[in-house]
Structures are given as C-alpha cells and as structure tokens.
Write a structure and sequence with these properties.
- The structure is a single chain.
- 31% of the residues lie in helices and 35% in strands.
- The protein is of the alpha+beta class.
- The chain has one domain: Hotdog Thioesterase (Thiol Ester Dehydrase, Chain A, Roll).
- It has a six-stranded antiparallel sheet with strand order 1-2-4-5-6-3.
- The chain is elongated.
C-alpha cells in the first residue's frame, strides 16, 4: 500500500485516533517513520501524565510494518514480544522515530536465506518536546523466508 494512503488510514484507525496517536511521517519506502502521542484529557493517567499503554501502543506496529514492506511477500514478519521501560513522566506531545537501513535488511536476508526463523530485537526511544527520553521500547520481530521463496531461489 502506498505509504501516504496508509498514513492517513492509520491516523483514522480508532485505537490510534482516540488514544491521541498520530503518524506524522512515513517515507514512501517505509524506512523512516515518525509517530507522535498528543496529550489529551482522555489519555492521561491518574497523575496527569501519559498513560503507559498509549506510550507502548504508539510504537507497537512500526518495526513489523517497516520490515514487512521492505522484505516483501517472500517473508513472514510478525511481532513476537515487546517491553517498555518508563524513564520519566511523559507530558505534552511525545514522539518516536523508526529507521530501517539497507544494511539491516541485507543482514536479515542473509541470516534467513536457509529458511530458519530469525528473532530480532529493535529498540527506540520515546522523547518529549525537550528531547528527554520518556520511555525506551524494545520489540522482538519474528522473520522467516517462506518455503516457496526458498525453492524458487
């Protein structure tokens, strides 16, 4: 799917829309993604800071989506695990960026060429407007070359 169309669609997706999550940018090749979480009265926790579930949700699908769109249909790509470490209270608008480069993709393709499953951890920070790290999120992605792709290659 064209990245600009996907960005508009996901910004209207109710779990993101109502949580205050906004995808600001998706590069045409899905290799660079920037996501914001805006503070709203309905997404604050009891002490007036960002709800931790929203901080995690804003980062949840993007490593998988970026890798899936870059590796193509010959690979299974699934989220497998995730973890979040809260470092300071999040207030105002916070953001997270995701970057996939050619070296990362080449390493995955080489490691998965024999059809073995690859479990890769990716990490990124959620930062506030002053550049302070609010949370550190880690996602484990399952990647495997599909059997029919191995036979064709």
């Amino acid at each position: 799917m064209k990245a600009s169309l996907f960005r508009h669609g996901i910004n209207l997706w109710p779990p993101f829309l109502f949580a205050g999550i906004h995808v600001r940018h998706i590069a045409a090749d899905y290799r660079d993604i920037t996501v914001d979480l805006r503070m709203r009265p309905w997404n604050r926790n009891y002490v007036g800071t960002h709800f931790g579930g929203s901080l995690f949700a804003m980062t949840d699908p993007f490593w998988m989506l970026g890798l899936m769109n870059n590796l193509g249909r010959d690979y299974y790509v699934w989220d497998r695990a995730g973890a979040i470490e809260f470092l300071k209270p999040g207030r105002g608008t916070v953001s997270a960026t995701f970057h996939i480069d050619e070296a990362m993709l080449a390493e995955i393709r080489e490691a998965a060429a024999d059809g073995s499953k690859q479990l890769r951890w990716y990490s990124n920070d959620v930062i506030d407007a002053s550049g302070d790290v609010v949370a550190r999120v880690r996602k484990q992605v399952y990647i495997r070359l599909k059997p029919q792709a191995r036979q064709a290659g």
